[in-house]
Amino acid sequence: MVTVRLPPVPPPWPPMTPRQINRFIFRQGLLERRGLTTEAAVRWADHLNFRDQDGDDRRWCLECRHYRTADFSCREGGVVVLDLLQRCEIFDWEKPA
């Protein structure tokens, strides 16, 4: 199990669109597959939704296709940061299969 600091609870936003709901569900599942508890996955998926709605261009390593769960590393040699968002030149989205 991966231990990460939980992000702050975001302020209320308008209801999510169907596209945002699908993205939230994908992210929650991805984060759980990558070792987060359900509670942490839900909180981070919500935080990432807030980030997207706010237009923030920072990313989180657990969203990246280069992240390796087995040893908490980056396939491209980047620095893995598990508890905050960052700007990363080698970031690439993990996409649904």
Write the layout of secondary structure elements.
Blueprint: H1 18-33, H2 38-54, E1 67-68, E2 73-74
Antiparallel strand pairs: 1-2
Helix pairs in contact: 1-2
Overview of this protein structure:
It is a single chain. With 97 residues, the chain is mainly α. Helices cover 34% and strands 4% of the residues. It is built from 2 helices and 2 strands, in the order H-H-E-E. The chain has helices at 18-33, 38-54; strands at 67-68, 73-74. The chain has a two-stranded antiparallel sheet with strand order 1-2. Strand 1 (67-68) and strand 2 form a beta hairpin. Helix 1 (18-33) packs across helix 2. The chain is globular. The model has no long low-confidence stretch (mean pLDDT 90).
